[in-house]
Amino acid sequence: MQRWERIEAFVEVVRLGNFSAAARQLQVSSSHISRLVSQLEQQLGTQLLYRTTRQIRLTDSGALYYESCRQLFEGFKDAELALDHHQTNPTGLLKITAATTFGERYIAPLVNEFHTLYPQLKISMHLTNRQLELIEEGYDIAIRMGVLKESTLVARRLCDRREFVVGSPDYFAHHPQPRKLAELEQHNCLIGSRDHWLFLDKGARKDLVVTGNWHANSGPALVDAALRGIGLAQLPDYYVTEYLASGQLIPVLDEYQFIDTGVWVLYPQQRYLAAKVRLFIDFLVEKFAAGIPWEQ
Q1: Strand 93-98 to strand 141-146: parallel, antiparallel, or no bridges (unpaired)?
Q2: Residue 212: helix, strand or coil by DSSP?
């Protein structure tokens, strides 16, 4: 640190032409600047400046040393400007991951809209129902739904998310509507990506293992099976809102809906977010705040 302070004092003296101006620039006394330059000369074992009462003049060694130090300082300033530009203007590659169907329907259009605002960005979007490891696999942002697991990632809630147990009118024409969770044992429960359904029972979370003769790791396939009266399904609101409104699906067990669930944007914890990440997160938050897409 002392050497750097001495070099900075020397560069400012030469650049501004005298010790007083350098002292004002660095907000210290002239005597302190003079002392720093003298210490630098002692450290280097050579005289850098000729001093008179009216002016200073570089020695040959001083001129050579100043030119190298000047380039060093300009390089640091360029680095700071580049960093500032990076923090205020989105550049580079933005890597995003989201669940397949949700990503196709609701995230991809927003990503494309964001890209029209910042066409200099490169976009890589990977849609998969497998939860990728953001840090290990080099992703900037993940869109996740439901109840989050504990992790070191930062999570920002985009909106609420509700899950409905639904069946078709045709199914309920042949089976009674369940009123209690225990009554699900009497029904054919359509199994999606997990073999348990999530409820709120007496104020506590309840993961209820369900059984049935149908299974697929596809939300649209699950919706289609429910519409055809094959059984009951537990599905998030963005899959079933339109069918509930039309009466093609009927909700049951609403009083057991688990409420602590949502749609989240996740990103690795960093002291300073890159502009591309910060701006995209703010963009998503603004869009979801204006209206949840599947409710519009």
Answers
A1: parallel
A2: coil
Confidence (pTM):
0.68
Rounded (5°) CA angle 219-223-225: 115
Tell me the per-residue pLDDT of 94-105, one tens digit each, with 9 for 90 and over: 999 999 999 999
CA-CA distances (angstroms) from residue 31 to 20, 36, 51, 58? 9, 9, 14, 19
Indicate if the pLDDT at residue 150 is higher than 80: no
User: Do the beta carbons of residue 263 and residue 195 sit within 8 Å?
Assistant: no
Query: Out of 3.40.1360.10, 1.10.10.10, 2.40.50.140, 1.20.120.530, which CATH number does the structure's domain 2-88 have?
Result: 1.10.10.10
Q: Which CATH number fits domain 93-160+261-295: 3.40.190.10, 3.40.50.1000, 3.30.70.20, 3.30.70.270?
A: 3.40.190.10
